[in-house]
Amino acid sequence: xxxxxxxxxxxxxxLCSLGAARNGPARNAILxxxxxxxxxxxxxARIHGPGPGGKLALELxxxxxxxxxxxxxxxxxxxASATAILAGERVRMGVIGMSPETxxxxxxxxxxxxxxxxxxxxxxxxxxxxxxxELAAQxxxxxxxxxxxxxxxxxxxxxxxxxxxRELESEIAAQLVAQRVLSFVVGGGRRFFSPYDLSGRLRxxxxxxxxxxxxxxxxxQAKAERIVALLAPDHFAYTVDQPSEGEAHTLPxxxxxxxxxxxxxxxxxxxxxxxxxxxxxDHAQHENRARAALQExxxxxxxxxxxxxxxxxxxxxxLVTSDHGSPLVxxxxxxVGDSILGAARGLGIExxxxxxxxxxxxxxxADGNPMNTLLFANGPRSALQLLLATHEGSDxxxxxxxxxxxxxxxxxxxxxxxxxxxxxxxx
Length: 427
Ligand SMILES: [Zn+2]
Known about the structure:
30% helix, Alkaline Phosphatase, subunit A, 427 residues, 12 helices
């Protein structure tokens, strides 16, 4: 090869590694998914945190309302909604990264009770569909994920896994080990990896596998090429349940993990795509634990704040959204200054100040108990008792800043968020 030709090849390679194959306005994109972050949860967290007139970091300038229904359910789950956002297809509830023809659990010959599965076997059209992570990796981008749920849980799984049943978390773990798309993986769910020595297999591939926050930070510092950090056997403990010091100190905040992710991924010359999930907002609401949910949302919001500071809005799109709502309502007439976690007040002072303290009395239910301002429509601690609260089907909000953010406006369908991200990154 003469020197001119080799120069040409070199410059072509340089162009490729700079992401010249992409022609979108954004070099990088960070997608934040607040799992179960209904507009009511967001408002309550704002009141609980910065106050009713305060501002959350996720209140970005470009805003849309987003429809969340799945192919078969009006109220969606995280598997189908993450597939909509990350792969651009509306699929059946419980399905991750597979085509719309896929029926949930069609690969399983039997139902959990042992009876034959009527939707088995899967139709030939039930095939894997590419995720944004896979498209980004093909274009030479670095791809990472940070979650405080099990890494095999529905939302993060939609980046790299293709399964007809979200409960198949061992299979999802095996797919995580087999993939070459993600170079930075942080979450919980270690227990799905130990039975098959999947962690040993990761190490054999040259992946730096760590289980503590300190080791993760050291790996980022040492510029490890691929990192998998599984920092908890299951989901992370709720922020409110974590001791401020001692053993659980090894569990870094979502904000800290986001900072490490940006530091690691921005070393890639062709840009990066990062998913950050605040997955425990949803879980706390399933348990009707309002305080825990609001703290989770505020911890998620701090991660957004870190990303805003650590990136340049000229080249990095930040998109924040939720996958579905939760049945939390803010009701009654609490005073400005009352705790959002406290009891609701009556309407006016004249007729309802029976205790004569000059303030409206607390609203009381028929059995004489004060009514909380935050109510769950269903779940273990609500009037409509269920073992766990359900999700909720109202539109959720999406907010964005950076190149391509202007596409986030009006009323959108969840699958359109995929197109917003894809076109911003030029994939
Ligand atoms: Zn949920």
